[in-house]
Amino acid sequence: MTCYLVAKKIASCVIYETNSYSLNSLQKEHVTHHVHPNPEMVNAARKFSELQDQDHLVIQVDSSFDDALIMSQFMACISKLKNQNEFIVPRVQKHVNLFQTKELLIRNNLLIDSLPLEIIRDLQETVKLMVAAGFEKECCHIYSSCCRGFLEECLRLEELDLKEEEKVLDIMMQRWMNACYVALGILFPSERKLCQRMFFGVSPAADLSVMVVCWEFTIGLLNYANDLATGSRSLNHFRCSLRVFRTLPGLISMFDSVFSNHHSASLKNEAIEIRKRLGEAIRVIFMEMEDHIFRDLVPKVVPHDGIDLITYFVESCFNIVLEYRDTLEQIFKEYPMPMVSDREGTFSSILSIQMDRIMELLQNNLEAKSKNYTDPAFGYVFLMNNYNYIVHRATCGYETTLGSDWIKKHTTKLQQNLEHYQRTWDKVLDILKLDSNESMTPLAAAESMKENLKLFNQQFKQICSIQTTWFVFNEQLREEIETSIEKMLLPAYENFIGRFQTLIGKDAYEYNEYVMFDIEALLNNLFLGKQNGQPREGNISL
């Protein structure tokens, strides 16, 4: 006991910094004394320190000095806990940034496993001292504040913004999902286990205070999800909303394992309401797709790949539908849309009916735009590009949704537009037709053929110079178009040149600008989409 009394005298010479929690709140006064301890006092202090190292903490709370000493001991333990947390935070943040579900199942003791046993034992003992001294409320407050700071560092919710611009929304969404699973699956259970261990048999209020902190963080996470339900109507937000809608049931199921009945029930109700708002928002966005396609009838400048932006928009819709088909079907069951019968009078999946309607609107949209181009041939190439793209994408995954009949129908439309395009060459082919007028003299026939050949050279050169700047993105389709032209043009040109050479003789080469090889080479350069090495966009009349 002598060691203890001497140690008290030395301890009275030290100012204890209580960090975020002030001793003034305890309405205690502490005075600083500056003394020079003698060797006997130093030796006594050393013995007192040894007693502490052996986990023999002195429990005496009969004076204001004892209160200050206990508080300083507790704050020292909290400081050690914070220092240790600094090493844990990067590991937790790694889970938030690169979360793997399998790891979650084995890491829910992350905090306790990461803390040295010495820190845990010291906290347990000082908590007993704090509660015995009548500072239960202050102890819970300080400990829960430490917990809050740790969670803030780990989750970094202030960096999450689901209203961010489109290019980073996916990244934010993934971080939000990771943060939810890490918080509910690792951090909150670990914090509660650690708290229960620290305050076991001493203060049930501490567990409640930590649970409230975790509850507040969960509400914060749910609020981010709510932002999607009230935010943009873009396709990216549509996809992210579906991800959250699909994720929420899994999060709701985790509430019971983390929170008490009261707090779990309030969180469930909040999550269910957010999920309901998301479902309604998703349904509205889906229905607005039709309106967007219907209103987009003014043709824009066609991108160099020849695919209209509305086609890409619909394709993006379909990609989302394929990825979240089951979720969308569930949404339409929970939040019904008006039933629409299909053409055969039967009732199909609401989703399939809606997508069929969207594809029909897309077809009408493209047909209307194709008629606005100054060159009808370009309109047909435009339709072939888009129909080919749609059919190709449909056969790669949409067939289940649209059906094989739909694909056959649009494959037929693709062939029809190829035939329409071929007919745009009729004016060139008409020039090469041989005159069957037998009454015409050889000289007159030769002069007529000279004029026709000159006209052919002009028109063929003009067509090639223009259509070389057009682009057909699909190589197989481009070859098919070129082959169809060759089959029409090359035989007609060969017959014409043969007859012309018969009439003119060796002087025919003076008028013959193209040999057969030149014709083939020029046709093979069509639809490459370049002019002076740069992509060129199609012209339209508005």
TrEMBL record:
<dbReference type="GO" id="GO:0000145">
    <property type="term" value="C:exocyst"/>
</dbReference>
<keyword id="KW-0653">Protein transport</keyword>
<comment type="similarity">
    <text>Belongs to the EXO70 family.</text>
</comment>
<keyword id="KW-0268">Exocytosis</keyword>
<dbReference type="InterPro" id="IPR046364">
    <property type="entry name" value="Exo70_C"/>
</dbReference>
<dbReference type="Pfam" id="PF03081">
    <property type="entry name" value="Exo70_C"/>
</dbReference>
<protein>
    <recommendedName>
        <fullName>Exocyst subunit Exo70 family protein</fullName>
    </recommendedName>
</protein>
<dbReference type="InterPro" id="IPR016159">
    <property type="entry name" value="Cullin_repeat-like_dom_sf"/>
</dbReference>
<dbReference type="GO" id="GO:0006887">
    <property type="term" value="P:exocytosis"/>
</dbReference>
<dbReference type="GO" id="GO:0015031">
    <property type="term" value="P:protein transport"/>
</dbReference>
<feature type="domain" description="Exocyst complex subunit Exo70 C-terminal">
    <location>
        <begin position="175"/>
        <end position="524"/>
    </location>
</feature>
<dbReference type="GO" id="GO:0005546">
    <property type="term" value="F:phosphatidylinositol-4,5-bisphosphate binding"/>
</dbReference>
<comment type="function">
    <text>Component of the exocyst complex.</text>
</comment>
<dbReference type="InterPro" id="IPR004140">
    <property type="entry name" value="Exo70"/>
</dbReference>
<keyword id="KW-0813">Transport</keyword>
